Amino acid sequence: MDLATLIGLAVSFGLIALALLLGGDPLLFADLPALLIVLGGTIGATLVNYPIDEALRMLAIARHAFKGHQTSSEEVLNQFLDLSNRARREGLLALEPAVRTLPDPFMRKGLQLTVDGLEPEAIEDILRCEMENMETRHESGAAIFAAMGTYAPALGLIGTVIGLVQMLKRMNDPSTIGPAMSVALITTFYGAVLANLVFLPLVGKLRHRSRQEIQLMEMQLAGILAIARGENPRIIREKLVSFQTPAERHAE
Q1: H or E element at residue 116
Q2: Are 226 and 236 in contact (CB under 8 A)?
Q3: What is the pTM of this model?
Q4: Of 96, 138, 140, 214, which one has the greatest count of Cβ atoms within 10 A?
Q5: Integer Cα distance of 250 and 88 in angstroms
Q6: Which parts of the chain register pLDDT below 70?
């Protein structure tokens, strides 16, 4: 699990809950009609905006923001150094048993194409197509939450209008003014909280994860093409090290 995501949600919601508690009765902010307007309306608008199969993938997409360990650049570097040394000693065909056991599907596919004897240019075309399509899928997933982050505050305003209309219609009965005004204000609160503490931060985390994954795939692609061209393991190492940050190089 990604601790940053969990800690961020816990801190933000925890501090808001603490502020409500210190300010009086936090149950004043518990309003089912307001929640139905904002959350239900946001989900409904998302279903209108996207095909149902894409919209229903929201939970699966959100799970990527909570993923923990990802393959590090150091692990990739060590894998390629081992494979390049073996290929130099025993030939490309000797890599096949090791390639089949690689956990990363992108790296496994690229090296299998190399073992099968494809030209480096053809390998690069295939793998870049894979990367571009993956990036498109990731952006589509992030766009769903970006849309929800837009809808939630708008639904909050709609709830405010509903509450104000109810309040003005019943001005002759003072006992109804409070509940109507509560819906009017709390829907705006719910919309702002959901947009700025859940949906939009998820967009940022998903896009950051996508950039990380693309960077790692670029590193893997460079290693795959270098092995396909039969380059010296020392040259391969220098190429792959260039993808690491100064901190990662210093940690070697």
Answers
A1: none
A2: yes
A3: 0.83
A4: 138
A5: 28
A6: 1, 68-69, 174-180, 250-252
Whole-angstrom Cα distance, residue 48 to residue 45?
A: 5
Phi and psi for 118 in degrees, rounded to 5?
A: -70, 150
- For the chain, the residue count is 252
- Using CA atoms, how far apart are residues 132 and 155, in angstroms rounded to an integer? 35
User: Which tens digits make up the pLDDT trace of 131-177?
Assistant: 999 999 889 889 999 999 999 999 999 988 887 887 777 777 766 66
What tokens does 62 get? 């959100």
Calculated CA dihedral for residues 145, 148, 149, 153, nearest 10 degrees: -170
Taking the C-alpha atoms of residue 127 and residue 110, their distance in angstroms, rounded to an integer, is: 7
Among left, alpha and beta (phi > 0; psi -120 to 50; other), residue 91 is: left
Phi-psi region at 232: left, alpha or beta (left = phi > 0; alpha = psi -120 to 50): beta
- The CA distance from 241 to 249, in Å, is 7
* Structure tokens that stand for 106 in this block: 């992108």
